Amino acid sequence: MQGLMMEVPLTLTHVFERGVGLHPRQQVVTQRETGPPRRATFAEWGDRVRRLARGLHELGVERGDRVATLAWNNQEHLECYFAVPCMGAVLHTVNFRLHPDQLAHVIADAQDRVIVCQRSLLPTLARVADRVPSVRWIVAFGEGEPDPPGLPPVVDYEAVLATADRPLDWPALDEREAAGLCHTSATTGDPKGVVYSHRSAYLHALTLLTTAILPGGLGDADMLLPVVPMFHVNAWGQPHGCVFAGAGLALPDRFLDADHLLQLLASERVTITAGVPSIWGPLLRRLDREPVPLPHLRTILCGGATAPPSLIAGFDRHGLTMVHAWGMTETSPLGTVAVVKHDLAERLTAEEQLGLRASQGLPAPGMELRLADLTTGALCPHDGVHEGELQVRGPWVCRGYLNNDDRTSFTVDGWLRTGDVATIDSEGYMRIVDRTKDLVKSGGEWISSVTLEGLLMGHPDVAEAAVVGRPDPHWGERPVAFVTVRPECPEAPTLEVLRAFLAPSVARFWLPDALMVVDAIPKTGVGKFDKRQLRRQLLPATAPAPEG
């Protein structure tokens, strides 16, 4: 027997029309270097979205064409987030921090027809202009130096909107049509394209509104500040979720330092914010030096890299709740969220709850997780002990890559192989042990670099820590720790001090053999530790093999 429900396409057109139609007075706020932020109501912003779609159509953008963006988090970028997919084209958010070779690769891989670019980023685009023949137009906005030579024709963004004498009628879209495209951060090899459908973006946005993801959910009383870049996995779906819910958006543009963020958090009465640990560490240290009242802020969403328990506990001291999440470009990215179940919160101590909050958490509604043994491929029990490769599936998980027939990232029965090594306990909480390529194998035993990093960042003198394996003639590999020191620390801790600090928490053979104190730990374009660069800095081990 079949159900008798209507088949209504799940598209971002509906998300846009609902947000603008029901919440015309809600605001989009964009930070500026000086002076008050720039403001637009949803009604004003929505009108610009429609005119942008018309202007892009007049430039020759057709259904299915790819339109790229190179921009920070601002109103114009948010306009692209809806104008492009609602007109039936595909929004390709490009990470402008990529190496020029990778930047050229992703634009060529997508066959972008038009690029909407912030003027300050035009020099970045100019470096690869001769390698992206598919690009017909550059639409530039904002302030910057005169346009560099060698670019395709450049037209002003506001001029494109001004020439749109009438809004574009939205086409009737199939929910399975492509809405967006992001490329993976490519810690190994070239970035791979992940193509999101209208259906997947709609369902992902709808899930963000639930209390299973954000304590208190997401609604029109909220103001959200996405610090995570809008070029990175759809800014974790937050722009779509906010417009769906009628929540306001406070956009930081390029001003991501602690002082600017605290100013925006306070002045706009932000209730929810989201970003990577490398953003929240400096902000916490700023709060520790000079507390700033943030009475409206109820949730700090942290993802992109593992958040150490000390970071979560640090915000607790200020009455601010950090919620830890995990995901990938391939999962749109929402995969798991570390919320504490109600019945567990009633019987666990604060320290025990912190252990759950520092895990990667429970699967989001719609997501399924399983573990496969690293050697045999057999499924592992969810007992919190057995470690295996994390595999996932769900309605917003990719089933392949753009222009790529390689199936090694997928199992025969259709699950995504994440490359993460994890455990899952009997309550369903998932914990990332390491990336398969970042595990340190010493004397036949595995050492988790992620665990060591989290513990090291709990030392009062350590700001950031990354651990990589160095080839060793006796043990195969041994761990080396790279750390940065907190500004207020009079001198860097020694290897002996940090080994003593770690000793009560890990086996003896886990203790790092070497310590590298650096000014900064290199990061990828999305804020993760760039361990490829760290490994290049290491020379082959020459010291005698350590005991234990």
Defining traits:
alpha/beta, Rossmann fold, Luciferase, domain 3, 548 residues, seven-stranded mixed beta sheet, nine-stranded mixed beta sheet, 25 strands, GMP Synthetase, Chain A, domain 3
What this model shows, in words?
The C terminus is likely disordered. This protein folds into 3 domains: 264 residues, ANL, N-terminal domain (Rossmann fold), CATH 3.40.50; 70 residues, Luciferase, domain 3, CATH 2.30.38.10; 98 residues, GMP Synthetase, Chain A, domain 3, CATH 3.30.300.30. Strand 5, helix 5 and strand 6 form a beta-alpha-beta unit. Helix content is 27%, strand content 23%. The protein has 16 helices and 25 strands. It has 548 residues and is an alpha/beta fold. Helix 1 packs antiparallel against helix 2 and helix 2 packs across helix 3. The N and C termini lie far apart (65 Å). The strands form 5 sheets. It has a 9-stranded mixed sheet, sandwiched between helices. Strands 7-6-5-3-4-8-9 form a 7-stranded mixed sheet.
Chart the SSEs and their pairings.
Layout lengths: L11 H11 L4 E4 L7 E4 H17 L7 E5 L4 H12 L3 E4 L6 H11 L3 E5 L3 H5 L10 E5 L12 E3 H6 L15 E6 L9 E5 H11 L14 E4 L11 H8 L2 E4 L6 H10 L4 E4 L1 H13 L9 E4 L6 H9 L4 E6 L6 E4 L4 H6 L2 H8 L4 E2 L4 E5 L15 E6 L22 E9 L5 E6 L4 E3 L2 E3 L1 H8 L5 E11 L3 E10 L9 H8 L11 E4 L13 H7 L11
Helix pairs in contact: 1-2, 1-8, 2-3, 7-8, 9-10
